[in-house]
Amino acid sequence: MELIKILVICLLTAFLAVLLKQQKSEYALAVSLAGGAIVLLLVLKNIFVPLLRLRDALTEAGIRADAFGVALKALGIGYITGFIADACRDNGQAALAAKAEFAGKCAVFLLAIPYLLAILDLAVGLIR
Amino acid sequence: MDVDFIFRIAAVGIIVTVLNQLLVRSGREEQAMLTTLAGLVVVLLMVVNAIAELFTTVKNLFGL
C-alpha cells in the first residue's frame, strides 16, 4: 500500500533526524530534507494520473482548460513553498519560513491577476 | 532511490560524528573540523540533487 510506505518513511526520517540532532544538527536538517523530498516525489507520482484525467474531463465539459491549468500551477506553488517553509520552520528559522510563504502567496496572486481583471471587466460590463 | 538514500545520508552523518570525536580526542582539532566540513559537503551535494529532482518533477507536473 503506497500510503503505508510513505508513513513508514516519514517515521524513519524523523527517527534518524532526532538521532543526528544531538551531535550534528546540520545532518538532521539534511536527513529531514531528503526524507521530505522523497515522500513528496512518491506522492507526486500517484497524484499525476488522476489530475490529467480530471483535466481531460473538464475540457470535455467545455470549461476552459487554462483555468484548471492555473489552479494546478497554484497547487504546485503551494506544494513547494509549504515544503521549504516547513523545513525552515523545523530548524528554528521561523522568519525565513514566513518570508518563503509570503513569496509563495505573491506568486499565486500574480497567477490570479488575469482572472481578477476578467471578472472586473465582466462586472463593469453588467453595470453599464 | 528512496529509503536507502535516507540511510546513506544518516550513515555519513554518524560516521562524521564518530570521526570527529576520534580526532578531537586524539588532539587533532583541525582535522576534526576538516572532516566535518568534508562530510557536510558530501551530504549537501546529495540533498541538493534530491531537491533539484523534486523541483523539476513538480515543475513538469504542474506546468510551472
Explain how this protein is built.
- Chain A contains 4 helices and no strands.
- Chain A is flat, with a radius of gyration of 20 Å.
- Chain A is mainly α.
- Chain A has helices at residues 2-21, 25-60, 65-90, 94-127.
- Chain A is 91% helix and 0% strand.
- The longest helix of chain A is centred in the N-terminal third of the chain and has 36 residues, at 25-60.
- Chain B has one domain (3-62).
- In chain B, helix 1 (3-25) runs antiparallel to helix 2.
- The chains are: A mainly alpha (128), B mainly alpha (64).
- The A-B interface holds A 9, 12-13, 16, 19-20, 23-24, 26-28, 30-31, 33-35, 37-38, 40-42, 44, 47-48, 51, 69, 72-73, 75-77, 79-80, 83 and B 1-3, 5-7, 9-10, 12-14, 16-17, 20, 36, 39-40, 43-44, 46-47, 50-51, 53-55, 57-59, 61-64.
What do the pLDDT scores of chain A average to?
Answer: 88
Indicate the overall shape of chain A: flat
> Assembly state here?
heterodimer
Low-confidence stretches of chain B: none
What composes the largest sheet of chain B? none
Return the structural class of chain B. mainly alpha
Number of strands of chain A: 0
Please give the alpha-carbon distance between the first and last residues of chain A: 58 Å
How many domains comprise the coordinates of chain A? Answer: 1
Classify the helix fraction of chain A into a percent range.
over 70%
Morphology call of chain B:
elongated
Count of individual helical segments of chain A: 4
Number of individual domains of chain B: 1
Report low-confidence residues of chain A grouped into runs of 5 or more: none
Rg measurement of chain A, Å? 20 Å
Mean pLDDT rating of chain B: 90
